[in-house]
Design goal:
- This protein is mainly beta.
- The chain is built from no helices and 11 strands.
- The strands form 2 sheets. Strands 2, 4, 5, 6, 9, 10 and 11 form a 7-stranded mixed beta sheet that branches. Strands 1-3-8-7 form a 4-stranded antiparallel beta sheet, with no helix packed on it.
Length: 119
């Protein structure tokens, strides 16, 4: 059974930091590019960040550039989203996503974890 389980969300004040975790099971984690997306109420789901299979390459969306980054621990089958200087605009449900190399199969989504930034 394939699972992606997000954790680490919560209610924080502007300027705070959070680390979200995505725990994977049921597939070969090290063969998958891992990403984070988010969706705020009334808005479409948007890309946040992506990390390469070996963890050496990270891409982040312009909206979070300089504030968010990703890392991963393949020995623990876990990917992370490191968030700093959180703003009210970061309030959303954050989803973990796993994508294989081209031609190796389909992708997987987690159920999401809520991040609320409010004073």
């Amino acid at each position: 059974q394939v699972q992606l389980v997000e954790s680490g969300g919560g209610l924080v004040q502007p300027g705070a930091s959070l680390r979200l975790s995505c725990a994977a099971s049921g597939f070969d984690f090290s063969r998958y590019v891992m990403s984070w997306y988010r969706q705020a109420p009334g808005k479409e789901r948007e890309f946040v960040a992506q990390i390469s299979r070996n963890g050496n390459g990270v891409n982040v969306a312009d909206s979070v550039l300089g504030r968010f980054t990703m890392n991963r621990d393949n020995s623990k089958n876990t990917a992370y989203l490191e968030m700093t200087s959180l703003e009210s605009e970061d309030t959303a449900v954050y989803y973990c996503h796993a994508s294989p190399a081209i031609g190796e199969g389909g992708t997987y989504w987690g159920q999401g974890t809520q991040v609320t930034v409010s004073s």
